[in-house]
């Protein structure tokens, strides 16, 4: 899901084009000018410091005036151009609980603050900063699982997919409200897919029907030192780490169910960086405190037959999933590699009507997001969700690894994918109101 030419870490690129925009010297400001302490700090605390703090992926902290002042002009430029906070869904098609966009008043406040010389104001006006748990964005996990040993990554070359196995030893079904995959070395971890395999899952009835011809499992390009085990026990995708993704936090009143006796399977994809290193990835879980949560199921659908001709500027690839019973859809996660440029999702109802439920007109590989519906979709039996992804395999695409080759499905970022993550529940639970605050992918 990323080549070594991509800047490591989701926020490391956010200000890359703006690094030279240091703040102007202080100017005489009107008495009514916004100040950092009273006006700007609350905006940053609410929207930015989740990532812009020490130890996280952003390239600078914005927790204090001293931290933020040198970047004032860069902050203004990023906010006014929409680079920050990152959000790529078209507001004309749906509302999303984890929409990261700043309101116009907040944008205007930041712009006015910078234009006035970025004054500090009275330090006593700064509200208490958010409380964060060092090393975790979800807060202190109830349970932490970790790879058994460090994995050595060479300085150069291609590292094929590896599979790490971690027994959970759960003695009963466990409901999880939040999951976070925490790489031990972000410079080397390209992506992680966390699967859960438990024998009792074999009795669970699926409610999805995939486009069978397109939905065949892709064949990995090669086997790593730790290939996936051959096992007939079903494996369910439960969490993802990739550029721009944030922890999986499920809507209030819902949770992911993990059956007793299961094993976590981590599909690890490492990228070399020119310097050898090691990684020991962790996954943290916060358990649901709800006595009877609505179960969220994690799945995916994709088109593994895609083929992009060399130098083609606009290739569309579709995939679909049908629902064998009524369902509630919580969120969608579009994923391509470097040639992907936009996405669209349509809900087709049994009566033949269709509507766009998500549009990502400027897909950005560096910011991969689970788009969580503010009002979850009630999907009647017999409906389909159809995904369409468009690709640019030409020289116009500055990120294109090689415009002179035909491209097909593949694990490596110089290849391509048409993949969608899907969070849904069977049936139409009564409690389907998504909390307007932080949810999965935010």
Number of alpha- plus pi-helical segments? 4
CATH architecture of the largest domain: Sandwich
Which value, in Å, is the CA radius of gyration? 22 Å
> Shape from CA axes?
globular
What fraction of the residues are assigned to beta strands by DSSP? Answer: 25-35%
Percent helix: under 10%
In the CATH scheme, the class of the largest domain would be Mainly Beta
- Give the ordered list of helices and strands: HHHHEEEEEEEEEEEEEEEEEEEEEEE
Uncertain parts: 1-27, 432-442
Mean pLDDT: 84
Q: Briefly note the CATH topology name of the largest domain.
A: Jelly Rolls
Quote the distance from N terminus to C terminus: 20 Å
Fill in the keyword field for this structure:
442 residues, mainly beta, Jelly Rolls, six-stranded mixed beta sheet, five-stranded antiparallel beta sheet, globular, disordered N terminus, disordered C terminus
Please characterize this protein's 3D structure:
β18 and β19 form a beta hairpin. The chain has 442 residues and is mainly beta. It contains 4 helices and 23 strands. The two termini are 20 Å apart. It is globular and about 65 Å long. The protein folds into 2 domains: 90 residues, no CATH class; 284 residues, Sandwich (Jelly Rolls). Strands 1, 4, 8, 9, 12 and 13 form a 6-stranded mixed β-sheet that branches. A 5-stranded antiparallel β-sheet has the order 6-16-21-18-19, with no helix packed on it.
Short description:
This protein has 442 residues and is mainly beta. It is 9% helix and 31% strand.
Annotate the secondary structure layout:
Elements: H1 36-47, H2 65-68, H3 72-81, H4 104-115, E1 143-146, E2 151-153, E3 162-167, E4 174-182, E5 189-197, E6 208-210, E7 235-241, E8 248-249, E9 254-258, E10 263-270, E11 277-279, E12 282-287, E13 294-295, E14 297-302, E15 307-308, E16 315-323, E17 327-335, E18 340-348, E19 354-360, E20 371-379, E21 384-391, E22 407-408, E23 419-426
Parallel strand pairs: 9-13
Antiparallel strand pairs: 1-12, 2-11, 3-10, 4-8, 4-9, 4-12, 5-7, 5-10, 6-16, 14-23, 15-22, 16-21, 17-20, 17-23, 18-19, 18-21
């Amino acid at each position: 899901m990323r080549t070594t030419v991509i800047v490591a870490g989701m926020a490391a690129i956010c200000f890359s084009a703006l690094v030279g925009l240091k703040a102007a010297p202080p100017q005489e400001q009107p008495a009514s000018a916004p100040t950092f302490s009273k006006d700007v700090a609350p905006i940053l605390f609410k929207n930015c410091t989740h990532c812009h703090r020490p130890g996280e992926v952003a390239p600078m902290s914005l927790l204090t005036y001293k931290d933020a002042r040198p970047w004032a002009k860069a902050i203004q430029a990023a906010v006014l151009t929409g680079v920050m906070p990152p959000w790529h869904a078209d507001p004309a098609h749906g509302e999303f609980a984890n929409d990261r966009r700043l309101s116009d008043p907040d944008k205007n406040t930041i712009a006015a603050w910078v234009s006035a010389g970025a004054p500090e104001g009275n330090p006593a006006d700064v509200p208490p900063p958010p409380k964060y748990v060092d090393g975790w964005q979800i807060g202190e996990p109830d349970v932490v699982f970790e790879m058994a040993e460090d994995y050595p990554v060479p300085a150069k070359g291609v590292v094929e997919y590896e599979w790490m196995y971690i027994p959970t030893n759960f003695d009963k079904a466990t409901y999880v409200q939040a999951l976070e995959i925490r790489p031990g070395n972000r410079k080397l971890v390209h992506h992680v897919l966390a699967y859960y395999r438990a024998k009792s899952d074999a009795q669970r009835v699926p409610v999805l029907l995939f486009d069978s011809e397109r939905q065949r499992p892709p064949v990995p390009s090669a086997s790593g030192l730790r290939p996936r085990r051959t096992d007939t026990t079903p494996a369910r995708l439960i969490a993802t780490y990739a550029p721009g993704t944030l922890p999986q936090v499920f809507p209030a009143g819902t949770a992911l169910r993990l059956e007793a006796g299961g094993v976590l399977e981590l599909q690890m994809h490492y990228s070399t960086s020119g310097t050898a290193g090691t990684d020991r990835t962790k996954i943290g879980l916060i358990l649901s405190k709800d006595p009877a949560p609505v179960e969220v199921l994690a799945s995916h659908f994709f088109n593994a037959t895609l083929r992009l001709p060399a130098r083609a500027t606009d290739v569309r690839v579709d995939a679909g999933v049908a629902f064998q019973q009524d369902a509630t859809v919580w969120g969608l996660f579009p994923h391509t590699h470097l040639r992907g440029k936009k996405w669209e999702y349509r809900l087709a109802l049994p009566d033949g009507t269709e509507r766009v439920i998500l549009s990502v007109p400027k897909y950005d590989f560096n910011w991969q997001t689970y788009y969580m519906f503010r009002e979850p979709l009630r999907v009647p039996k017999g409906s389909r969700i159809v995904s369409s992804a468009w690709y640019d395999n030409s020289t116009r695409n500055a990120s294109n690894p090689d415009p002179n080759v035909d491209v097909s499905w593949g694990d490596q970022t110089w290849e391509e994918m048409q993949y969608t993550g899907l969070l849904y529940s069977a049936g139409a639970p009564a409690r389907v109101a998504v909390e307007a605050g932080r949810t999965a992918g935010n």
